[in-house]
Please model this.
Amino acid sequence: MKRVRAMLAKLVADERGAHIVEFGLIALPFTVILLALTDFGYHIYLNSVMEGALQRTSRYATVGDKSSGSVDDYLRAQLTAFKNANLTITKKSYSQFSGVGKDEKYTDSNNNNVYDQGVDCYYDDNGNGRWDTAATSGRTGLGGSDDLVYYTVTADFPRVMPLTSFLGFSAMDQVTANMVLRNQPYGSQAFPQCTK
Ligand SMILES: [Ca+2]
Ligand SMILES: [Ca+2]
Model:
């Protein structure tokens, strides 16, 4: 019995290998943090690449009369860093800065603070024959002379690090960038009249 007690005491006092156990305890959380930081850094990098690509493309698009298809092709060529990404490009044009992402303007004839069809006259900025809220205002595409073009580019791409397993993150990541630029005044800009 004494011999067993002596062995147990010796075992308890033996600190050899303690560092390996301690390393085992911190290795997993340290690795997860490292993976998350790497993933976040890659996200920031791609966001920066997209911002730069959008600026170059916007300059290309607004000088001269470019077709919507050629602008898309130019932009995709700039985004070579997104090899495995699904790119979505949307362009909406507005005649004035004050209209970007806003409801089409109207004259509130009956002072009830809402647009009333047939009562209030409105400015059909996108020329579709009806009053539009912010969700549908603006014209699809590059618009015309002196118009403002609102670009939105979204890239969905697979994460570079396996954070789905460790942290339950989505297997896909997403970056979005947008910019508003004005077309060159190569012609006369058409402004809508207030109509009912
Ligand atoms: Ca009204
Ligand atoms: Ca409209």
Residues 17-195 form one domain. The pocket of calcium ion (ligand 1) is lined by residues 108, 110, 112, 114-116, 119-120 (CB under 6 Å). The mean pLDDT is 85. The beta strands are 86-94, 106-107, 121-123, 139-140, 148-158, 172-182, 194-195.
